[in-house]
Design brief:
The complex is a heterodimer.
Chain A: E1 5-12, H1 19-22, H2 34-38, H3 49-52, E2 58-61, H4 73-80, E3 85-88, H5 93-101, E4 106-108, E5 119-123, E6 128-131, E7 136-139, H6 145-152, H7 156-163
Parallel strand pairs in A: 1-2, 2-3, 3-4
Antiparallel strand pairs in A: 1-5, 5-6, 6-7
Chain B: H1 5-14, E1 23-27, E2 30-34, H2 38-48, E3 59-62, H3 72-88, E4 91-93, H4 100-108, E5 114-117, E6 131-134, H5 137-146, E7 148-152, E8 156-162, H6 171-182, E9 191-195, H7 204-212, E10 221-223, H8 228-236, E11 256-261, E12 268-270, E13 278-280, E14 291-294, H9 296-299, H10 302-312, E15 322-325, H11 330-338, H12 341-347, E16 350-352, E17 373-376, E18 392-395, H13 398-407
Parallel strand pairs in B: 2-3, 2-5, 3-4, 5-6, 8-9, 8-11, 9-10, 14-15, 14-17, 15-16, 17-18
Antiparallel strand pairs in B: 1-7, 12-13
Helix pairs in contact in B: 2-5, 6-7, 10-12, 10-13
């Protein structure tokens, strides 16, 4: 997490976006070829996603984002697409852990207040989201200090390389 | 204050008080991957800089999701996994042994264990009172390296079961009903704990079906107490010494308590495209299906094949409805052959697939065509799950699946079951 303040545009999604929506299981044979796999991100749910996303954008979802499979390729291809953070009303637990382990911030907040295309500024340390379009602020649920420490190091691999163990 | 099953297991494995909400470091008894999550796990393990896995006898690799391999790329992933197993001396269960969760139940899971797997249905082993939960490849890689991982001790929902199933109603109907009540995120981050007088009548096969689907309500684990049923199952697997009784404290603190009367349940069907979209099989009557799939870690056990065989024996599948059957393990397949179930099923027009995940996740062995509908005994019906986003997936019990294979449309099994 080199940057603690992020600025970008909201790409709005609905409730219950599954890991099959993010990266369909039928492409499992491409999982050892991430550049090929990542071409299929949101292929069934948002077919024009690749042309809509810009480096630094945010995914803004409803409830239960990332439900389903444990495939870490889901947050991985989201990160590869240029998405800088995910905002959701709630997130499935395996996805939540996987995203943090990949150094991809997930902020849980009342995303109904955000519209597609809104310009947002996110302060990760404070957990505060400023909606520059509607001129309003949202506060996200605090994550456990250990998860925040993992996120701060850029993910679990850099965290473990530095600390050699989990530090509670 | 007393402890739930989740708190007790995490207390013992973390050497802390482990009350709901605490973050703890706990030792793990089994760490596993399968063939679609294993390759990334190996990459992350290598990137982590650890020279070796902590305890190879506590690490297992299962080749089950795409097995036998349908593509060059998957075959190369399988080569990578076999090589890693040879290099590290961990366990490997190659193509044809069965589904990871079934093999974990048969071979590894003990009451009080902590099991982490790179597969969301790792929760299945909660049937044996193991704190078993799914994680992603990086968490699993680090758990392999350290022999431990971190957990947030979950709050628990107690699901109190009373009464017994009426004719044609099974564990699958119970868990579909519960998920319909809770919603797909109704138990997110929570432990589900099953209790009540009905437990004595729920065999291990039924418990595995129920625990398997805890994750479909968002739960971290689905736990059953370790009791005489657990003892009997472990003994049947030649693992009597692994048994220990394990119950929650009488004064344990539950976030929510729900009661379900089994005798009031009826056959249930989960409609596209979410597991919590649950209806009665009666309401699904008349929906045409082109494929029936009986198998998976949810319902591919001997008891499931027995029910299907009893309904299909002496009958034929509907001509326009394919019937695919995948036993969940080699042991299940062998027993189903010995008991004559496979004979009855093949005579009824079934295709027997090798022990493994088969058609469940759309990689091979039964991918659906555009506009086709499948009634499956699996645990998930997300859009695209069986390989085609233009297909419709319905979930039900093996009895409902078998009855529907005869008629070619979703059918309440009580219409065809003969006493």
């Amino acid at each position: 997490m080199p940057e603690t303040v992020l600025k970008g545009k909201a790409i709005k999604l609905g409730d219950n976006v599954s890991t099959d929506d993010i990266i369909p299981g039928r492409f499992a044979h491409l999982r050892s070829n991430l550049p090929e796999l990542s071409k299929h991100i949101f292929e069934d749910l948002v077919p024009d996603f690749a042309s809509r996303v810009h480096q630094g954008d945010f995914l803004v979802a409803g409830g239960n984002f990332g439900l389903g499979s444990s495939r870490e390729h889901a947050p991985l291809v989201i990160k590869m697409s240029g998405i800088a953070a995910i905002l959701a009303k709630s997130a499935a637990r395996i996805f939540f852990r996987n995203a943090i382990n990949q150094g991809l911030p997930v902020l849980l907040c009342d995303t109904a207040q955000i519209n597609d295309g809104d310009q947002l500024e996110i302060n990760l340390t404070e957990g505060v989201i400023t909606n520059l379009t509607s001129n309003s602020r949202l506060t996200s649920t605090k994550i456990p200090p250990l998860m925040f420490a993992i996120l701060k190091e850029g993910g679990l691999i850099p965290y473990i390389k530095k600390h050699k163990d989990f530090e509670l | 204050m007393g402890k739930t099953l989740a708190e007790k297991i995490l207390r013992d494995k973390s050497q802390t008080d482990a009350m709901a909400g605490d973050i703890v470091l706990a030792t793990v008894d089994l760490v596993f991957v399968q063939d679609t999550t294993g390759p990334l796990t190996i990459k992350q393990f290598e990137d982590s800089g650890f020279a070796a896995i902590a305890e190879p006898e506590k690490v297992a690799i299962f080749l089950d999701h795409a097995a036998p391999s349908p593509s060059q790329q998957t075959s190369n992933d399988h080569i990578l996994l076999r090589h890693f197993a040879r290099e590290t001396n961990c366990h490997i269960y190659d193509v044809g042994n069965g589904i990871c969760h079934q093999l974990v139940a048969e071979l590894f899971a003990n009451p009080g264990d902590i099991i982490v797997g790179a597969d969301s249905h790792t929760v299945t082993a909660g049937a044996l009172c193991a704190f078993a939960t799914g994680m992603g490849s990086t968490d699993i890689a680090i758990a392999m390296a350290l022999g431990k991982t971190w957990f947030r001790v979950p709050e628990t929902f107690l699901i109190n079961l009373i009464g017994s199933f009426s004719k044609g109603v099974y564990a699958k109907d119970l868990i579909l009903y519960l998920i319909g009540q809770l919603g797909a995120d109704g138990a997110t981050y929570k432990a589900l704990e099953f209790g009540g007088e009905s437990l004595a009548g729920l065999n291990m096969s039924q418990r595995l079906t129920i625990a398997n689907m805890a994750v479909e309500a968002g739960a971290k684990v689905g736990l059953f107490p370790s009791d005489e049923i657990t003892q009997g199952f472990l003994s049947s697997q030649g693992r009597s010494a692994s048994y220990k009784p394990l119950y929650p404290d009488a004064d344990a603190n539950y976030e929510r308590i729900m009661s379900i009367n089994l005798s009031q349940l009826e056959p249930m069907v989960s409609f596209p495209h979410s597991v919590d979209n649950v209806h009665s099989a009666r309401d699904a009557k008349g929906i045409k299906i082109q494929q029936v799939f009986i198998g998976t870690c949810t319902n591919g056990r001997l008891e499931d094949l027995a029910v299907a065989a009893s309904i299909l024996q002496g009958k034929r599948r509907y001509p326009d409805t394919r019937l695919l059957i995948a036993p969940s393990s080699r042991q299940v397949l062998l027993q189903a052959i010995e008991k004559g179930y496979i004979h009855s099923l093949v005579e009824a027009g079934a295709v027997i697939l090798p022990p493994g995940c088969a058609a469940c996740l759309g990689l091979h062995q039964g991918v659906l065509g555009d506009g086709e509908a499948c009634l499956s005994t699996a645990n998930r019906n997300f859009k695209g799950r069986m390989g085609n986003p233009k297909a419709m997936l319905y979930l039900a019990s093996p009895a409902t699946a078998a009855a529907s294979a005869i008629t070619g449309e979703i059918t309440d099994p009580r219409e065809v079951i003969i006493d």
